[in-house]
Amino acid sequence: MTNDWRDDLSLKLEDFVDTFVVKGAKATDVYDAIQNELDRLRVAYDRDPDPADDQSDDVVEESSNGWPASPA
Q1: How far is CA 45 from CA 50, 52, 56, 57, in A?
Q2: What is the mean pLDDT of each run of 10 residues along the chain (72 residues)?
Q3: What is the 3-state secondary structure (H, E, C) of 1-43?
Q4: Residue 22 CB partners (closer than 8 Å, separation 6+)
């Protein structure tokens, strides 16, 4: 994977910050608010990571309900 997504992220963050600066916020206040929110999200993720990222070998099997097969 290339760093193209990082370049895209940078541009979108600049645009995001500009949105609030145009509405009257100070850029440094927006940066602080974003950092606080990122810190909160990281703590939440550390407590409850995305199950899709789980690399364990545990496989959850579908339970069998024992119903007869449908007639053909």
Answers
A1: 7, 13, 18, 21
A2: 86 97 98 96 85 63 66 59
A3: CCCHHHHHHHHHHHHHHHHHHHCCCCHHHHHHHHHHHHHHHHH
A4: none
